[in-house]
Design brief:
Helices cover 75% and strands 1% of the residues. The radius of gyration is 20 Å and the shape is globular. The protein has one domain. A two-stranded antiparallel sheet has the order 1-2. With 326 residues, it is an all-alpha fold.
């Protein structure tokens, strides 16, 4: 029996060496990719596995970012409490918004999610006393890494790292844990029921499945993990701003999910990597990067209608079928 290599674990170990092998820029880019990978994977739980297209997923990303930022900067709460609080707050709002959204289907569902997201953005933009309004909340502090610095000093072979690099290691571990939990969710009977609802909600309801309850549970879980990604993103950017909850963020993460391959677990993470890498490469060469990036994305989506991960899986199956025939 041939066992598959643990690709996810090997990728995590390789990512730990980015600060040692690359420049500070590549560590920054890798941190950005890791956070967006979690954000896109959380959306994939809705779009890819449940069949619910959300145009307002950035609302929970922004709620998580503001929750962690307010707790750490204004209240002085440590990161170990502020981080899960970001997910819980986003899950709470997702439960309220989702209660109304899952009563509608298709385009009406998508437009209602966008409407709720715009409400969240407007509150973040106007509530100066709490969110900082249009100026946002700059100077969000990093977690306290004094213990990590003492360990590095005691073990010289670990090398000397900056605070931002310690935060990258922390982000990598936390995102890896979140992705592992999401993997277990989609592989559980609950996840398989979500796929059944995506394929044929009427048949699922006919056999006695409470479709709305499952959809609401998926909506809340997706919001919670988006909030965790937002909490990390606010600290990573050293500030939280209203555009974190704006509709353009929802569009970006939806493009990542489609580009990587919705319905495949690691497709959205791959889409985040490709989109952010293309963005950096094009931006460094021309000021007309939005037009060029848009043209490249159109070509990629036409060439790979099932996403990059979907095309890779299809190619692997075809090669396996040919080798079996041979």
């Amino acid at each position: 029996m041939i066992t598959r290599p643990p690709w996810a674990l090997l990728l995590l170990i390789a990512a730990l060496f980015v600060p040692a092998l690359g420049s500070r820029f590549y560590t920054f880019l890798a941190n950005d990719v890791v956070i967006w990978a979690l954000f896109a994977t959380s959306l994939n739980l809705l779009v890819g596995y449940t069949g619910l297209v959300s145009f307002g997923h950035a609302a929970y990303f922004g709620i998580g970012a503001y929750t962690a930022g307010i707790l750490m900067k204004q209240v002085g709460v440590p990161f170990l409490l502020a981080f899960p609080a970001a997910g819980l707050m986003a899950a709470g709002f997702a439960a309220v918004f989702g209660f109304f959204c899952v009563r509608l289907t298709r385009i009406y569902f998508a437009m209602l999610t966008l409407a709720f997201a715009q409400i969240v953005w407007a509150i973040c933009f106007k509530w100066n006393e709490v969110t900082g309004g249009e100026q946002g909340m700059p100077e969000i502090p990093y977690p306290d890494f004094a213990w990590a610095e003492r360990v590095a000093a005691a073990l010289p072979f670990l090398g000397s790292y900056r605070t931002s690099e310690y935060f990258y290691f922390l982000t990598l571990v936390l995102v890896g844990l979140c992705l592992w939990i999401l993997r277990r969710i989609v592989g559980s009977p609950f996840g398989r029921m979500l796929t059944t609802i995506r394929e044929n909600p009427e048949r699922a309801e006919f056999i006695g499945v409470n479709v709305r309850r499952y959809e609401l549970a998926a909506f809340v879980l997706a919001g919670a993990f988006a909030g965790l990604a937002g909490g990390l993103f606010g600290i990573f950017n050293r500030g939280v701003f209203p555009d974190f909850a704006y509709w353009t963020k929802s569009a970006e993460v939806l493009i990542m999910t489609l580009l990587g391959g919705m319905g495949t677990f690691f497709g959205p993470a791959l889409g985040a990597l490709v989109l952010l890498w293309l963005n950096q490469q094009i931006l460094s060469h021309t000021q007309y990067w939005p037009a060029i990036l848009g043209a490249i994305l159109i070509v990629l989506l036409f060439v790979f209608p099932g996403g990059i991960a979907g095309a890779t899986l299809a190619l692997a199956r075809r090669l396996g079928w040919r080798s079996a025939r041979a």
